[in-house]
C-alpha cells in the first residue's frame, strides 16, 4: 500500500513539474496573448458608444361595463378581473403594430436622426424596421403586465420613444375597446349642450332688449 502511495505522489509531482516547465517555456507567448486580449477589450470598451435603456410596464385590465346577466354571459361575468393569454398577446401585437411604430418614428424624428438631411419615406421605413427590432416587448410571468424595453445612444431619445409609444398605444387601445355607441352618445350630448347654450343666449338677448325698451319708455 505504501509503494502505491509513493507512486501516486511521484506521478503528481511529475505532472505539476511538466506543467511548470511548459508554462516557463511558453511564458512570453502566454503573456503576449493575455496582453493582446486585454488591449482589445480595452479598445472595444473605449470605442463602443454608451447605451441607455428605458423601461415601462403596462398593466392590462378589463374595462368594467355594466351588462345584463344572461345565460351566455354568466361564465364571463363570474370573474371580470381575469385576463386571458390571448388578451395579453393582443395588446402586445397592438404595441408592435406598424401604424403605431410609424407614428412614433415621425413624432420623435428617429428617421431624421438616421438620415444625413431631410428624411425620405425610405428613411422612415428603415427607422420603423429598426425600432421594431430595438423594442423588446414581453409579458411578465404570472402577472397581467407587459414590459417594454428600448435602448438608444441618447438618454433623451430612449425616454421620448417610450413616452410617445405609451401615449399612442393608450389612445389606440381606448378607441378599439370603446363600447359600441359611445361616440354617438357623446356627440348627442355635445349637440344638446350647444343647443341649450344657443337657447340661453337667445333668451338673454331677448331679456336685454326688453330692459332697453322699458328704459326708453321710462325716459
How does this model look, in words?
This protein is mainly alpha-helical. The chain has nine helices and three strands; from the N terminus they run ααβαααααββαα. A three-stranded antiparallel sheet has the order 1-3-2. The longest helix has 37 residues, at 182-218. The protein starts with a helix and ends with a helix. The model is unreliable at 1-13 and 65-78 (pLDDT under 50).
Secondary-structure blueprint:
Blueprint: H1 2-25, H2 27-47, E1 52-59, H3 74-78, H4 85-95, H5 98-108, H6 110-114, H7 121-134, E2 136-139, E3 145-152, H8 155-177, H9 182-218
Antiparallel strand pairs: 1-3, 2-3
Helix pairs in contact: 5-7, 5-8
CATH architecture of the largest domain: 2-Layer Sandwich
State the strand order across the main sheet. 1-3-2
- Number of helical segments with 4 or more residues: 9
Count of the separate structural domains: 2
What is the C-alpha radius of gyration, as a whole number of Å?
A: 36 Å
The CATH class assignment of the largest domain is Alpha Beta
Portion in helices: 55-70%
Succession of helices and strands: HHEHHHHHEEHH
**Structure class:** mainly alpha
Whole-number mean pLDDT = 73
| Uncertain parts | 1-13, 65-78
Distance between the termini: 141 Å
CATH third-tier fold name of the largest domain = Bacterial polysaccharide co-polymerase-like
| Number of strand elements | 3
